[in-house]
Amino acid sequence: MPTLRQFQYLVAVADHRHFGRAAQAAGASQPTLSHQLRALESRLGVTLVERRTHGAELSPIGREIAERARRVLVEVKDIRDLAERASESLAGTLRFGVSPTLGPYLMPPVIAALHRAQPDLRFYMREGIPDLQAMELVKGAIDMLLGPLPIEGENLTIEPLFREPLLLVAPPDHPLAGQKKVDKADLYNAPVLSIDRRHHMHRDVTEQCHAHGMHLLQDYEGTSLDSVRQMVASGLGLGILPALYVQSEITHGDDIALLQVDGWKASRSIGIAWRSGAGFADEYLSVAGRIADEAKILLNKMVPQEH
Question: Within the chain, which residues score under 50 in pLDDT?
Answer without folding.
Answer: 303-307
